[in-house]
Amino acid sequence: MKSKDGILNAAGINTRLAHLGNDPAAYHGFVNPPIARGSTVLFPDAQTLVSEDQKYTYGTHGTPTTDALRDMINTLEGSAGTILLPSGLAAVTVPFLAYLSAGDHALIVDSVYFPTRRFCNRMLKQYGIEVEYYDPAIGAGIEALMRPNTRLLHLEAPGSNTFDMQDVALVSSIAHEHDCVVTMDNTWSTPLYFKPLDHGVDVSIHAATKYPAGHSDVLMGFVSANEKHWKKLDEANRDIGLCVTSDDAYQVLRGMRTMGVRLEHHRKSALDIAQWLEGHDDVAQVLHPALPSFPGHDIWKRDFKGSSGVFSFVLKAEENRFTERSHAFLDALSIFGLGFSWGGYESLAVPVSLRDRTIAEGPTEGPLIRLQIGLEDVADLKRDLEAGFAAAGAA
Ligand SMILES: Cc1ncc(COP(=O)(O)O)c(C=O)c1O
């Protein structure tokens, strides 16, 4: 079978997504890798067993299926190595455990995914790590927050729910002057729209549950590290003992094959709806980085190749009627489901609470609603949202 490696290096993203990680010659010509279920791997003799001198040694350390997915992610991220974890949240917590020790100080962006904050406030503090939240718009001001024991800077851009942008390259370079590892939750963009390691980040994190899986039927996280930080991440994960099943890795690999075309559809539909909402009488504000009205738009335009399908808007409501109006809006939707997560084929809506924020407090003039725009037809989604606005107005 002909090797495609040379061609793929120079190929477009959809060609790469269609072929990376596949090695038909190794599996009798079958296009996809097998689902290798297994804990035990046999060795041919005692010497090979004691030296563990063969490619696969035990189920937790990888299988041909998980390797196919990891190879693809490493190529897309430009990383030295990737670990696969059973959820996106674990993809944030494992690197924190890998790189932080008692007595360290960690800087976490204030617009971080809430369960990440909960892990920091409970588990990291319990293990003697000091956590401080910073303004996503801090830029060069991050220098003033650096202490001799600051060891980790965590970014999420756009931030959860309010989509605050960050100057990734600037804060990363300052953090490196202080010998900090820089981690970034890049779930919103996927490596198709932003490659963190190209902008100075050391460790790129994804909830693969979202766009990579793409069908709301599997949970997974990816963590990809550069050469300097890979060994520690890999060792920590072996120590902790987390891994994913080959069945789940196969599902995510299957999702990745179509991620480019799905993401382009999410992008176009979400932007169309965001622009439409911006001109809507019942909307006070739309928070979407690709809209020129958005405060972080210039940074988004400079650094990002695209925008995905999740954004928020502020519903107009009198000060004491936020809950009634937003619940009436949500209850009137029928195509949009009410439920957590995003990145699947179906549209979702959730009310957003920013109670946890300490610095980036977000809009206050009305209730905030987050939309995940799925793969349905935009006209149908707009009709559904109009039903929501009508019900909110009547509440
Ligand atoms: C930005 C971000 N990171 C991480 C996660 C966690 O992913 P999972 O649901 O797979 O734990 C989520 C989930 O919503 C998320 O939005």
* Assembly of the depicted chains: single chain
The appropriate CATH architecture of the largest domain is 3-Layer(aba) Sandwich
Q: What structural class should be given to the helix and strand makeup? A: alpha/beta
Which stretches of 5+ consecutive residues score pLDDT under 50?
none
Shape field: globular
N-to-C SSE series? HHHHEHEHEEHEHEEHHHEHEHEEEH
Measure the end-to-end span: 65 Å
Helix content: 25-40%
By DSSP (H or I, 4+ residues per run), the number of helices equals 14
Strand content: 15-25%
Q: Which ligands does the model contain, each kind named once? A: pyridoxal-5'-phosphate
Q: How are the elements arranged and paired?
A:
Blueprint: H1 5-9, H2 13-19, H3 46-51, H4 64-77, E1 81-85, H5 88-99, E2 105-109, H6 114-126, E3 130-134, E4 150-156, H7 168-177, E5 181-185, H8 190-193, E6 203-207, E7 221-225, H9 227-240, H10 246-257, H11 259-278, E8 283-287, H12 297-303, E9 310-315, H13 322-331, E10 337-338, E11 348-352, E12 368-372, H14 378-394
Parallel strand pairs: 2-3, 2-4, 4-5, 5-6, 10-11
Antiparallel strand pairs: 1-7, 6-7, 8-9, 9-12, 11-12
Helix pairs in contact: 4-10, 5-6, 5-9, 13-14
Bound molecules: pyridoxal-5'-phosphate.
Residues 87-89, 113, 160, 185, 187, 207, 209, 219, 221, 341 line the site of pyridoxal-5'-phosphate (PLP).
Family: Belongs to the trans-sulfuration enzymes family.
InterPro entries: Cys/Met-Metab_PyrdxlP-dep_enz (IPR000277), Cys_b_lyase_bac (IPR006233), PyrdxlP-dep_Trfase (IPR015424), PyrdxlP-dep_Trfase_major (IPR015421), PyrdxlP-dep_Trfase_small (IPR015422)
Organism: Agrobacterium bohemicum
